[in-house]
Description:
356 residues, Rossmann fold, ten-stranded mixed β-sheet, seven-stranded mixed barrel, 32% strand
Amino acid sequence: MKAFLILEDGTVFEGTSIGSAREVISEIVFNTSMTGYLEVFTDPSYAGQAVVMTYPLIGNYGITPDMESTRPWIDGCIVRELSRIPSNFRCQGTIQDFLKNHDIPGIAGIDTRALTKILREKGTMNGMITTNENYQIEEVISKLKAYRTGNVVDQVTCQTASLLKGKGKRVALLDLGAKKNIAKSLQQRGCEVTIYPARTLAEEILGENPDGIMLSNGPGDPKECKEIIQEIQKLYASGTPVFAICLGHQLMALANGADTYKMKYGHRGGNHPVKDLETGRVYISSQNHGYVVDADKLAPGLAVSAFVNVNDGTNEGLRYTEKPVFTVQFHPEACPGPQDSSYLFDKFIEMMGGNQ
């Protein structure tokens, strides 16, 4: 079946329908990871987005037990070539069936290099995936220009609190769209992790006297999370050690008077170099974000830049000077991507007083 990807600027790509045949409008973003497509599809940070995988062959090892959530969150899947006969000893099915079972539309057989160049030159834009050959381009573009992702954190967060047992430090994980490997990385270090829904009041979290607080990754514009930011202000003021990743990093900055802005096309992939400004070392990081903190808007003396992106100089982390709080824009838990910066979880354990 034919499928079409129609961009907000009027560009149309024709390919083949994969997954669900339903029509979808979404923000179109690209990811440069060569492997780890399943982790990308199941990362809650992609809620409200259709993902272009720039690597030309996707699906060659099928669906494996590597999901970062209980379900995929992408709105759509865009690939150059879909491997329909996977080969892997851990394979549990094909991407085609996976997308169909979760009612996710997709398109294959288009020039993803040309599409990525458009997104890099013109910036991230909205798009429609459709199998309707009789679409009216003016009507579609009008819908695309009107589309807004909105507050997607409420869609992806857990509904009730849950406990992952451990014998070490007790960590409260605020689930803003958390990938599974964040809690797993803490558990591997002996921590007992309580996972809370995104809108949990600070008083409830602090009332359990956790040794530390983890703010997770998540989707969307951080400025949409107004009520959550107010609770994070209270968590910061408590003096409890805090480690924040991605969206959590942005919300902590907003809670302390900084600003965030939307990037032209964001950072999404497993090969982004970040420099530790204290040691001078450069780490290759996994990233997935379309917004970034404007570190220049932080009050003087409140925090210092801890990491910077080597490619474009954007802020990749903050170390707060008045409280035991540090935050990073990239993903030290990886999945997919390199685990060069996983030592930051050990640093968090040290901030909480170690496991002794």
